[in-house]
Amino acid sequence: MIVSEIVELEGEIIHDSIFLSVGHLHSRNKKRLVPINSCHDLKLAMTSDTIAGLIIPEEIPVPKNTKKGIIIASNPMMAALKIQKKLIQNSCINKQPTKIHPSVYVHPSAIISDKDVVIEKNVKINEHVIISEGSVIERNTIIGPNTIVGSISKPVNPDPALSNYNPSGSVLVKQGVVIHAHCCIEKSWFQDTTIIGQRCHIDNLVTINQGAVVGDFSLITANSQIGDYAIIGMDCWVGLRSIIHPGVSIGDSCYVTLGSRVTKDIAHGMVVKDNWAIKRERFKGVIT
Amino acid sequence: MQLSTNYIKKIQKYIENPIIGLSLYVFIFIYNLYGLIILENKKNKPTKIHPTARVHPSACISLYGVQIGKNVIIGKKAVIKFDTHIQPGVIINDNCVIGDTGYQIYRYKTKRLQVIHTGGVIISENAVIGSNTCIDRGLFGKFTYIGSRSKIGEHAHIGHNIHIGSDSTIEDNVTIGGNTFTGERVYIGNNSVISNRLKISSNSVVKQGTIVTRDILENVA
Predict the structure, then answer these.
(1) Contact across the interface for A180 and B175, Cβ inside 8 Å
(2) CA-based, 20 to 30 A from A126: which of A138, A153, A277, B94?
(3) Chain B partners of A277 at a C-beta cutoff of 8 Å?
(4) Which of A37, A70, A91 is the last residue in one of the domains?
(5) What is the pTM of this model?
């Protein structure tokens, strides 16, 4: 599709281009339109091949010598959601009422949305859990107290008009997953799914951001944060309070130690040690 | 006591032998069934809440084995599971989760088996626990212990079988792994991480943002 055919935007269109979907900077769809908010994001977007068009605010200077489509808008996140709403209306997706299997244990203080939720058999849902629209929970999973499945991710430019749009992403929790207390699993604004693989164990206070994929059998310990659209492979170990940057992909059977920050892609079977707080030579006699 | 990474790799190679690995898997599976019997026996004791305690109506307190002393304050949406002993004068703020299961998993190839937790939590006199913290209950019948007059901040995670001495302060966003032992009058700063199976002596100070992977034996600033 071409941008000028679909919508009447308030901003001006400089280059026109063909695109198939609207997505985030780090998502993996081909030929997508991307809203951009800073100069650092623009450098990353110019290098990737899968992006077809950019939506840029007025403050950033327009890049030259590119074949990518460029649109200038006052609030690029709002313009992207406006285009996506037109695309969804063409495909006509109807939301269905929730389906909960009769063998599911739900604590009376838990809140489950009325639309578009599927919960399979032998699931246990504990106190004060919130499950929002577009989330699928497969069999034999346990969700601990105070967690939120399908929370709305942080808005890039907070705007009161943003409440007219609903995030169209979804969350898929596969079979045999155990999630402990105070976790937070986000869903994205665009049409992407955050996936948690089968038989994962996720400890307290973990946040999994929008569009992230956690592979099967992998273990994530307490207080660690997984960035937007990051991929974690099968059979991994993520240590206490480690941070994984957005867009990073980690291979199978990796071992991320405690307190480490992962900023680059990692091959299969590696061990990450990035203990940046301690200079060991200085404390050599003191810490045994 | 601490385990080096080479030592862990030796243990992992030992477990990859299918005879030892599968027999350990069966042993832990039988122990989990035995643990369910222990938890059923604990349901004989009803909870005792002292009439002077102030509990918010939206807080969820288990029906079995909880003891709450006098002048205790419990905030809204707090969750307290069975076999926790809260002694008089304790303040527990909003959204706390106390006595949930810890994180102990036996893994053999693609099998994941969570070991059952049969212990409990003891919070002794005049301690203050900030909002959104999680305290796990003990493994193998032991208790996680929090000393008297100690303060724990917000968004903190405290693992199973931990002993925290009296008069110590633990700031916000701290994570402490399982089986560590801290002495009295310890200060642990914001955003710091403490690994599991460590011993931190009394009067020691851990500054903000440090990652502790070894024992702290002397009085260190």
Answers:
(1) no
(2) A153
(3) 209-211
(4) A91
(5) 0.86
